[in-house]
């Protein structure tokens, strides 16, 4: 599996769009891995997870060919993951030389908004409803949406994605996993886990995880043999409010054998 991480910030970006706090000023000055955009990832060039407002930026900076994307999966409809207006650029008149249909998979809120926003559909876009804990064949991957603890009025999802010999846990934006998700996970294997660390050293771990919740999650997955000795755990989706630069995050997570994701990171198995 080739997992291309396109964005690693929380909804405001890092440095945040309009912010002049000392951490955002420092990130602007340092650049490099301290520049974080809104989140998305691509699996083997063909399956994309989430479609943030920074997508054109990702296409330009990472030299992406989005025409190869056959399936688009949505975790939830917060704007940093979900900007369906730009999906109109995938339709005739704006996109030449692309294959149809584009398959869009998501919860009912995501599909309803896509249906409302996309100007043409039928043969160009197919909408597929994802139900938690049901395994769906998507291209040559097996995708099981799991429940997150993120927004009490939306069925927010994280994904277990098995493709070839590799299983990915895409954990964005999750909070501490609900019991049903733990029970499902404890019967499976994960080679790459990407975990939400929006809250950094803040106390809160509901809606979004913090450092301690990430470490506890990794330990519990290891104790249940979901993670093997070869498995890799990455943290992502950082808010400027935590005041941690890339190097600070590395210092926190290195002793726990957890890697800090950054924009443009490519993970290969
Ligand atoms: Zn988010
Ligand atoms: Zn700031
Ligand atoms: Zn969210």
Automatic annotation (TrEMBL):
GO molecular function, one term: lyase activity
Lyase recorded as keyword: yes
Organism: Fictibacillus arsenicus
Pfam families assigned to the protein according to its UniProt record, in alphabetical order: Lactamase_B_2
Keyword Zinc assigned: no
Spans traversing the lipid bilayer: none
Keywords of the record: Lyase
Matches recorded under PANTHER family: HYDROLASE C777.06C-RELATED (PTHR42663:SF6), HYDROLASE C777.06C-RELATED-RELATED (PTHR42663)
Domain Metallo-beta-lactamase: residue ranges: 63-225
Protein name: Carbon-phosphorus lyase
């Amino acid at each position: 599996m080739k997992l291309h991480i396109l964005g690693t910030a929380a909804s405001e970006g890092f440095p945040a769009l309009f912010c002049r706090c000392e951490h955002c000023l420092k990130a602007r000055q340092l650049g490099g891995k301290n520049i974080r955009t809104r989140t998305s990832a691509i699996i083997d060039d063909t399956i994309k997870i989430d479609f943030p407002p920074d997508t054109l930026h990702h296409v330009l900076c990472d030299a992406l060919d989005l025409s190869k994307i056959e399936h688009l999966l949505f975790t939830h409809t917060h704007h940093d993951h979900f900007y369906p207006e730009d999906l109109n650029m995938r339709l005739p008149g704006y996109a030449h030389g692309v294959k149809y249909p584009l398959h869009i998979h998501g919860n009912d809120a995501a599909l309803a908004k896509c249906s409302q926003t996309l100007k043409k559909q039928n043969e160009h876009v197919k909408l597929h409803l994802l139900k938690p804990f049901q395994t769906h064949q998507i291209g040559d991957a097996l995708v099981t949406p799991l429940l997150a603890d993120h927004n009490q009025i939306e069925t927010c999802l994280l994904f277990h994605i098995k493709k070839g010999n590799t299983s990915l846990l895409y954990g964005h934006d999750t909070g501490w996993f609900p019991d049903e998700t733990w029970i499902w996970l404890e019967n499976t294997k994960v080679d790459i886990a990407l975990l939400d660390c929006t809250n950094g050293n803040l106390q809160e771990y509901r809606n979004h995880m913090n450092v301690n919740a990430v470490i506890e999650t990794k330990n519990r997955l290891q104790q249940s043999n979901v993670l093997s000795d070869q498995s890799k755990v990455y943290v992502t989706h950082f808010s400027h409010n935590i005041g941690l630069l890339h190097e600070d995050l590395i210092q926190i997570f290195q002793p726990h054998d957890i890697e800090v994701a950054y924009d443009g990171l490519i993970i290969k198995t």
